[in-house]
Prior knowledge:
single chain; mainly alpha
Amino acid sequence: MFSDRERRLCLSLVILFAVNILVIAAAQTVDAATYKKGSSGQKVTEIQTKLKNWGYYSGSVDGVFGSGTEEAVKKFQQSNGLTADGKVGPATLSALGLSDTSGAESGDVQLLARLISAEARGEPYIGQVAVGAVVLNRVRHPSFPNTISGVIYQAGAFSCLQDGQFYEPVADSAYQAAREALAGSDPTGGAIYYFNPATATSKWIWSRPLIMTIGKHRFCS
């Protein structure tokens, strides 16, 4: 028979062991959505592909997160106002147009919502959907990249990436607008350009045929 002291000691050891297991499991869960040097698999392949397509990575797309991938990630993060730690967490995944493992929102929804929030902050809801629709119209248009991330990160396409507004907190309405646009809603009637006439200085954008005006934005073909 165990004494009371021995039983208390055994119980303490069991509790301590259980706590350690929970801590390790929690750490693994948190780290599951973070890809870094030493990681491997399909998601790393997707990361490498994005970085290579955008000129940040010149190595092999082999699904192995090595030093070359780490340096490419740092360059991408520096270019996009992110913490340049070489690790691909939820924020960097979103900027790459990739979904994290949480499944809360797809990468496309997150990326499109971030653009809508930055470009159409203060606009009526239909104007927010319209901005999302322009992005998707460009994806389908032969003159633009054929992915949402490619359209958004195309050089000079959206001023919010240069002035930092792209990295501001995302409005809840922007997520709803992004989902509606992705579901096929297009209040613009097929526009591939929009601009604010109060701030636009480009003569070229003024030359684009007007389709309609929604809020402060003119939507053009």
